[in-house]
TrEMBL record:
Subcellular location: Membrane
Protein name as catalogued: Periplasmic sensor domain-containing protein
Periplasmic sensor domain mapped to chain residues: 45-145
Keyword presence, GTP-binding: no
One GO CC term, this protein: membrane
Transmembrane segments: 21-45, 164-186, 198-218, 224-244, 256-280, 318-339
InterPro entries referenced in this protein's UniProt entry, alphabetically: AmpG_permease/AT-1, CHASE8, MFS_trans_sf
Gene source species: Pseudomonas aeruginosa
Organism superkingdom: Bacteria
PANTHER family linked: MAJOR FACILITATOR SUPERFAMILY DOMAIN-CONTAINING PROTEIN 3 (PTHR12778:SF10), SOLUTE CARRIER FAMILY 33 ACETYL-COA TRANSPORTER -RELATED (PTHR12778)
Amino acid sequence: MNRRRRYTGSNPSLRRVLYRAHLGVALVAVFTAGLAVTLVGLLTLRAYADPNQQLIARSISYTVEAAVVFGDAQAAEESLALIASSEEVSSAIVYDRQGQTLASWHRESTGPLHLLEQQLAHWLLSAPTEQPILHDGQKIGSVEVKGSGGSLLRFLRRPLAPSLLALALLSAMTAVSGFGLSKLYLSDAGWALQDIGRLGMSGGLVTVFLGCGGGAWLVRRIGLWRGFALGVVLAGCSALLWYLQAGRWLALSEGLAWTCVLIGSLATGITSVAILTAAIRFAGQGGQAGTDVTAVQSTRDLGEMLASSFLVSLTAQIGYAGGFLTGSALAVLALLLALRLQAGEGRGEWKGRAEEA
């Protein structure tokens, strides 16, 4: 009898086996989604990086044309440094008609992340760009430009960047946990697909017209972080109402479902406007606005993709009630982080840290 007990205890139950299998599937789904987003992002950056590098080389060739004509190395080096220092360039070389170096410029990077910047540039840019220098239709020299991958790393090194990215990620995951997961819940509850589609379409209209418009008004009226906090609270309330219905604390009804969707859609619009406003404000305090705003927006897109795959797998383990409750917990985290940033902004940390960066 004792041996039978030991044997039974040494074998995991079917529920535990299924739990481990579903957890593994969830982790693989999250990893796959993150890898896919990363690859797509790198390919997109590479598609834009090469033309941008060619444009920089063309600008340099026009600027140093007169200096190359007269063989003025000092003027060529000054003109070269003027453009290259303000662009995403690691090195630039001007050659004369004989192919000899007339002027050169190299970005000084001795920090611990210099090697990582070089590797990033190697992935984003296929090769250095060479642009001929023309005078009266004839080639009198050339410019060689090598790009740099430091803009993204400079963004990440700024003190407030991680908090901003965390807010973008949490707000997106909160929105998906309430709005996306509710469609599956209603489908399993026996709702017709056309009714669910009508509900989703109405929610999208509320997001665009009322959420985004109201979000812009709230940011102007009560401030950036208070507006964001209000949007997160609404998102958390929507997820909490869904939790009460999924947990059978409240009976599922059409009126309550519409209320949840409208509140969640309004919250999505408000948080989207607020987080992009924060990204633009943050970018305005640095020297690479395009990179900063793109990083925040890409993180928000990543949050939506991760939440879509992760929460569905998690719901398979803990049920719809647990999935909606997870969304409420994410909203609380986003709210606490937003309040922390609001307090830091009141103390002038945004401006002071931006100047330090």
